[in-house]
Amino acid sequence: MLIVICCILGQIIHYTNALIPENYFAKTHRGNRSVIDCSSFTGKPVDGPSNPVIIIPGDAANQLYARINYKPASTPFYCAKKWDWYLIWAAIETFTTEAILECWIDNIRTVFNQTTNQSDNSPGVDIDVPFFGRTDGVEYMNPYVTWLSKYFHDIVDTFTRCWGYERGKDILAAPYDWRKAPPKAKAKAKAKTKAKAKAKAKAKAKAKNKAKAKAKAKAKAKAKA
């Protein structure tokens, strides 16, 4: 059996502090509730994982990396025009100044493509979703500020310490580009585009036939005269 864990960001952050009873946690040197005490769980000891676990993060709940290849001339002068891969979500420095926030918004935004009815990346920006299959991208929203960005870490840590799971083997994660619509929505948009094109072609053909019939009738009337 496959176990799938999927959550909304706001519901799962600080999961261990909100949902697991106090006696499940080992006390740290400051008395904070942070590490689950495996001995608190009841039942027979588990020799190893019996079911694989796949974590599907919620909206805005996994890391995204960006690379800037170029930026249009309209981009503010203080925004980088070229930059190698870096963590764009969730980057704490994003909110330090108004200028940095403005540049960040321009880089992470999506642009609606009216031809395909889909969302594209901001011009000149590549977005990558790293660590597919691994839990690195969902345990912390920012690997450099772990104390502030903990997400699925406590859950993964409990599975590995208490039940013998191994990261990347028995407990996996499926991060994705949460800025964009799911495949079903894309397929629906594509079908809508096709239907619009078909209706437009049909209307055009109808107008052409009508004009042709009108011209024919006019020519016939002229011939009779």
UniProtKB/TrEMBL annotation:
One of its GO terms (biological process) is lipid metabolic process. InterPro entries: AB_hydrolase_fold, LACT/PDAT_acylTrfase. Coiled coil: none annotated. One of its GO terms (molecular function) is O-acyltransferase activity. Residues 1-18 form the signal peptide. Keywords: Signal. Residues 196-225 are annotated as: Disordered. The keyword Endoplasmic reticulum does not apply. This is Uncharacterized protein.
